[in-house]
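Prompt: May I have another protein with tokenized structure?
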Amino acid sequence: MQVGYSSPQAESFRSASSTGYIGNAEHQLRATVEDDTLRLASCFIRHVLYFESPQDSSNMSNVVEFRDTKLRSFATPQLLEQAINATDDGGLCLRSKNDTNDFELKDNRVAILEAKRKFQWLEDGKPTISDECLGQMTCEALQSRLINPTSPESVIVIHATQHYLCFLQFDISNQYIREFDTDSLSLSIPVVITPWYDFSNESNKKQVVLNLCALMRWGGGAGGERQCDVSLALISCI
């Protein structure tokens, strides 16, 4: 399995960041339990989902909500020696109003959340996503496509670390899914990442809000069908 990645600003994947210099010693001191990171990210995301456009209306037929439940999934490709085991930390789900005006679950993986207690690597004061962490998120994105092959080709992962957050877009084509677990697979999985956003920075928080609002529009589009290009969700890439 090959993963090709790039930042939206034509820099290397490892240097994409809106943060200033992060000292390693200070970062280690701030490291707490992973649940603290998850709690901060989930509270912020919930606030945006509740009060920002397009979900600030009382008349909604499709609603994107925060999913607390951690989803665990397995796949056992014939060509691999062991199963692919992926467990996320929650995410965004879609509920649609039915004939009885109840909102029923339609899509459990509009976006996937992956939280870490600290950065795995700091390079010249800039946060780096390690190969191990990237591999974990790739497996989670791939699993979401294998479970539902008719789902959109792009999978969004929201990655949170302490008070930092970024968005990753994994483009897993239908052809990749068809060729997966065959000897003929030669495709890679392109990945685009936004800069890291710092919740202690006001302009960074606004960028997170804009991205989440775009995800709401994408995930809860007309009839719950995602018609638009998911790249529009990563508005900071433009």
